[in-house]
UniProtKB/TrEMBL annotation:
This is Tetratricopeptide repeat protein. InterPro entries: TPR-like_helical_dom_sf. It comes from Streptomyces olivaceoviridis (Streptomyces corchorusii). Residues 360-379, 387-410 are annotated as: Disordered. Gene3D superfamilies: Tetratricopeptide repeat domain. It comes from the Bacteria.
Length: 442
C-alpha cells in the first residue's frame, strides 16, 4: 500500500518532474504545472501524479489530490488512470489527463466510457484530429449516441468535412430527446459548411469560413499581420483605432445589405465601450439608437467587447439575455477573443484578438525619456468619441504584406453566399479555434 509516510516523502526521479517539484517547493503551483506540461506526455504517470497531487492539495482540490495519490500507488490500474484523467478534466487541466486516459483505454481493452472521457479531453485542448483518430479506431463498437455523434462533431472541428458528412449519414435520429439539440447543432454546422464552401476554399487557412462554420459568426476583417507566422487573420495584442472601428461597422453594414436583414434600430448596451461603438453604429447604419431591451426584434445589438460587457455591473445577466435572440435581432461584437471566446456567440464580429485596448482606453505611447508609458483613458463624452469614429479613415491597414486580399467585394460575396443559413437557429459557443492553424496551437 501507499502509506501516508511514503506519500509525504516520495519525490519524482525524472529530471523534468524534479524541476516541477522544486517549483512547488517555492510555492508556485501554476509554474509547476507549466513544468509538467513542458516535460511532455512520455513522463512516468506515477511521478506525474506525485506532482499534480501535491499541486492539487495546495490548491484545495481534494478530488484531484485523492485521484493523484491513487494513481501514484497503482500506475497500471485502469480505474486509477481513469479517475485521475476524469479529475484533471473536471479541474480544467485536460492536457494532463490525456496520457493517463490513453493508458486507461489501452489497459481497459477500449472501454467506451474511457474513450468518451479521452475524447472530451482532446476536445478541450482543440486536438480534434486526435479525437477523430481514437473514435475511428473503435468505429465498429461505437454507440450512435454519443460516440458517432462525437465522431461527426470532431471531424467538423478537425476540418474533415467529407468524413463528417459520411458519418452523419450513418447516424440515426436519437431516441433520447436530450440529444435532439446536439443533432440540430450538428446539422446547422454542416449546413453552414455547405454555404461557406461555396464562398471560399474552407481550407486550412480559411479563417472567415471556419469561423462561420463553427459558430455562425461572420468575421468582418482579417488581421494583416503575422499571417504566415500562424495568426491566419487573427490579432494577438492589439491597440485598436477609430479607423478599425469604422471599418468593422462598414463591414457590418455590408453584411446586413447582402443578407437582406433590415433592422429598425441599434440597441445600446450599458458599458461605456459598447455605448461609444453603438452610437457610431447608429450613425453608420442610419438607424435610431435606444437602450437595449431583452426581446426587442429587428435591432442590432452592438458590443465593443462581450467580455467587457460581462465585467460591467449586471453584465452576466445581460449576457444571459443575449443567448436566445428575438427574430431579426443581430448581435455584433467588434472585438472577440479567439483564445478564450466570450460566453455568447455573436452573429457578426469585426476582428479576433488575444488582447485588445479600445481606442479610447489607456493605450501605450512613447514617453518623454524614450521609453513607453500607458497614457490616460479618453474621458470625453461618448457621443464626441463616437463622432470621431464616423469621421475616421476606413482604408485597410496594409500590414506586413503577407496577408490575403480582404477587399469589400470578397466580403460581400461571402455574406451573400451565407445568407441562407445566417441567423438560423441557436448560435452555440464553440471554444475551439477549429482546423485553422495558429501560433497558439502550433
Amino acid at each position: 500500500m501507499f502509506s501516508r509516510r511514503n506519500r509525504r516523502t516520495a519525490r519524482p526521479t525524472s529530471p523534468a518532474l524534479r524541476t516541477a517539484w522544486e517549483t512547488l517547493d517555492a510555492g508556485d503551483v501554476p509554474g509547476a504545472l507549466r513544468q509538467v506540461r513542458a516535460a511532455g506526455e512520455d513522463q512516468p504517470l506515477d511521478e506525474v501524479a506525485l506532482v499534480v497531487g501535491r499541486a492539487a492539495g495546495s490548491a484545495g482540490f481534494g478530488d484531484l489530490a485523492d485521484a493523484s495519490a491513487a494513481l501514484a500507488a497503482a500506475p497500471e490500474d485502469p480505474r486509477a488512470l481513469y479517475d485521475f484523467g476524469y479529475a484533471c478534466v473536471e479541474r480544467g487541466v485536460p492536457d494532463l489527463a490525456i496520457p493517463a486516459l490513453r493508458a486507461a483505454l489501452r489497459l481497459s481493452g477500449g472501454a467506451l466510457p474511457v474513450l468518451r472521457e479521452l475524447v472530451s479531453a482532446y476536445e478541450d485542448e482543440g486536438r480534434h484530429r486526435e479525437a477523430v483518430a481514437e473514435l475511428a479506431r473503435h468505429e465498429d463498437r461505437l454507440a450512435n449516441w454519443p460516440d458517432r455523434y462525437l465522431l461527426v462533431f470532431n471531424a467538423v472541428l478537425g476540418g474533415d468535412l467529407e468524413l463528417a458528412r459520411r458519418q452523419r449519414a450513418l447516424l440515426p435520429d436519437p431516441e433520447d430527446e436530450r440529444w435532439r439539440p446536439a443533432r440540430e447543432r450538428q446539422d446547422r454546422m454542416l449546413a453552414r459548411a455547405a454555404d461557406a464552401g461555396r464562398a471560399g476554399p474552407l481550407d486550412a487557412v480559411d479563417l472567415r469560413g471556419w469561423q462561420y462554420v463553427l459558430g455562425g459568426t461572420v468575421l468582418g476583417t482579417l488581421s494583416p499581420y503575422g499571417y504566415d507566422a500562424g495568426m491566419n487573420g487573427r490579432y494577438a495584442w492589439l491597440q485598436d483605432t477609430p479607423d478599425q472601428c469604422l471599418r468593422g461597422l462598414l463591414r457590418l453594414r455590408d453584411l446586413l445589405a447582402a443578407t437582406g436583414v433590415r433592422p429598425r434600430s441599434v440597441s445600446l448596451l450599458p458599458d461605456r465601450d459598447s455605448r461609444v461603438l453603438g452610437l457610431a453604429a447608429a450613425e453608420v447604419l442610419g438607424l435610431p439608437a435606444e437602450p437595449f431591451a431583452p426581446g426587442r426584434a429587428d435591432t442590432v445589438v452592438v458590443a465593443y467587447d462581450l467580455d467587457g460587457l460581462a465585467a460591467h455591473d449586471g453584465g452576466p445577466e445581460l449576457v444571459g439575455e443575449l443567448f436566445a435572440r428575438a427574430p431579426g435581432q443581430v448581435l455584433h461584437a467588434h472585438a472577440c477573443c479567439w483564445t478564450d471566446p466570450p460566453a455568447v456567440t455573436p452573429d457578426s464580429a469585426a476582428l479576433l484578438h488575444q488582447s485588445v485596448v479600445a481606442p479610447w482606453g489607456p493605450q501605450l505611447r512613447p514617453s518623454a525619456d524614450g521609453g513607453v508609458e500607458r497614457g490616460p483613458a479618453d474621458d470625453r463624452p461618448e457621443a464626441e468619441i463616437a463622432a470621431g469614429i464616423t469621421a475616421a479613415d476606413p482604408s485597410p491597414d496594409p500590414g506586413d504584406g503577407d496577408g490575403p486580399a480582404d477587399d469589400d467585394a470578397r466580403f460581400a460575396a461571402f455574406a451573400t453566399a451565407v445568407r441562407g443559413t445566417w441567423l438560423r437557429g441557436e448560435r452555440a459557443r464553440v471554444r475551439s479555434a477549429g482546423p485553422v492553424p495558429s501560433s497558439r496551437f502550433a
